[in-house]
Structure formats: C-alpha cells, structure tokens
Design goal:
Among the domains are: 37 residues, no CATH class; 89 residues, 3-Layer(aba) Sandwich (His-Me finger endonuclease fold), CATH 3.40.1800. By secondary structure, it is mainly α. The longest helix has 25 residues. It is built from 9 helices and 2 strands.
C-alpha cells in the first residue's frame, strides 16, 4: 500500500515537473520580461544581498566564479565584457596591480608627471599604437620597484642593456659583422 502511494506521489511530481517545463517553454518571453521587471524594481536590494553574500562567503564565491568562468557561457561572457570600455579598464587595473603592485591612479599620476611621454626617448604616447609600458626593476621582480613609463621599444632595449652578459655578447656580435662587412666592401672596391 505504501509503495503504491509513493509511486503515485512520484508520478504526480513528475507530471508537475513536466507541466512546469512545458509552461516555461511556451511562455519564455513573458517570463523573461517579468524577471527583468522584477530585477529593475528590486535591483538595489538584490545587489546588496549579493554583495553581503560575497563578503560572508568569499571562498564559495571565488569557487563559483571560477567554475562559471570555465563554462562556455562564462568564457563567452568574459570575452564580450573584455571588449567593452569598462572591461578593458578592469583588465588594465587587474594587470598592473598584479604585475607591478600599482593602481591605475598611480599609473595616471606617472603618466601626467611625464607629460604622456616615454621617460627615455621623450616621444608622446600618441605616436605609438600601444600604451606606455610600466618600467620596473628587471633584475629583481620581487621588489616591484616601478621606475617610470616607457614606450615598447625603449622598454625592450632597456631589458637588453640591463643584462650585462647579453649586452656584451650583442656588442661582440655587431663588431664581428662590422668587420665582415668592411672586408666585403674592400673586395668589391
């Protein structure tokens, strides 16, 4: 008797689940509009609740965010957000804070102190496709010592110059080819 009652209840639950699914499929647009309206009317309350939850459960929030970001939908959303103005700014903030330990405000202050120009060659950022790079102590990345803003070319050259062994080898290489080209010029003359 109990088995029959349980089977009937399960069938009733299954019927209800299928009916709900059918209703949702039939009324997708109406449900979406109601959800949006509810969100707009209760936006601040929902945002406050989410913020409170994130603060109370940081490890759960981080795990959920990481899991979501690995889904196809999460990846697509993150790519789309990264292309927006807000997304680009957020990515820049995160990158310079993580790599160099400075904020965007610090970067902007340095940019203004240098009048928007590379600290070595003096060319303005407008002349380059990329933004000015943050120059830091290449020999000791642990110190996060930020020295200024450089164009990509000057930053790359500075990295080569700071490595004395590589610089000596580069100069020897150039000297070798200068001698070879002089010999070839004499043969042609």
């Amino acid at each position: 008797m109990a088995l029959q009652e349980e089977t009937r209840r399960m069938n009733a639950k299954e019927k209800k689940r299928l009916a709900d699914k059918k209703y949702r499929e039939k009324n997708k647009v109406r449900i979406r509009e109601k959800d949006r309206e509810y969100y707009q009317n209760n936006r601040q309350r929902l945002c406050d609740y989410q913020k409170k939850y994130r603060e109370e459960h940081p490890e759960k929030h981080s795990a959920d965010t990481l899991a979501w970001s690995r889904t196809e939908k999460g990846k697509a959303c993150m790519r789309a957000y990264g292309k927006t103005k807000a997304g680009k700014l957020a990515n820049k903030r995160h990158k310079i804070l993580r790599r160099y330990g400075i904020t965007v405000e610090d970067y902007d202050r340095m940019f203004n102190e240098q009048n928007g120009c590379c600290a070595i060659c003096g060319k303005h950022q407008i002349e380059f496709k990329a933004t000015l790079a943050v120059d830091h102590n290449h020999k000791n990345h642990k110190t996060n010592q930020v020295r200024g803003l450089l164009c990509t070319l000057c930053n790359t050259q500075l990295c080569l110059v700071e490595n004395e062994d590589r610089l000596a080898k580069s100069l020897a290489y150039l000297e070798k080819w200068r001698r070879i080209s002089k010999v070839q010029e004499r043969k042609l003359a």
